[in-house]
Amino acid sequence: MGWHTRTGRQWSAASAAALLAVSIAGGAGCSSDGTDRPPDTALPEPSGPYTVNVEPCESGPKAARGTDSELPALRLPCLGAGPAIDLAELGGQPTVVNAWASWCGPCRREMPGMQEVYQEHGDEVRFLGVSTRDDPRAAAAFVEELGVTYPQVIDQDGQLLRPLAAPGLPVTLVLDAQGRVSTKHLGEMQPAQLRAAIERAR
User: What domains sit in the chain, N to C, each tagged with a CATH number?
Assistant: First the structure.
């Protein structure tokens, strides 16, 4: 079962709470609190770049100064080659941010579709995967296995999930050129849904 998409400006504390309740009841995604991976599992500190055949992270176009980016000022190291990326500076072009983990079944089902849409739109839309609460070595093996080639960063502590009020994974954000959230999608996202969200963000 998938989640309906909503525009970023429609999100409120009430709607976030409602989504949390629906997520718990429906089980559409993986819990981020250890349902699929014990929460006390010790993870290695990322010391990349890990050997992975993805595009290098690039700062690229940034949101204009003074815009009210809806993502936290969270600087995350690249899983492959390239500099760390500050999420609050994403902008300048439509951007897809997808949080996932190698231990998450819906993420595994979803990611080939993400790659498919990236291959269609990667020249004009930035794609960024966020390996979340995961062993970077397992994450690198995961994207290699699935043939994913767009840039990936590491959020080992799951810091992005907290301000998003996201109860689990996967989570997909589509940002407009000003860095504002146009679509927030909790749970597995189908390629057709992602294509429609990209069009709304243009």
Answer: 8-31+55-201 (3.40.30.10)
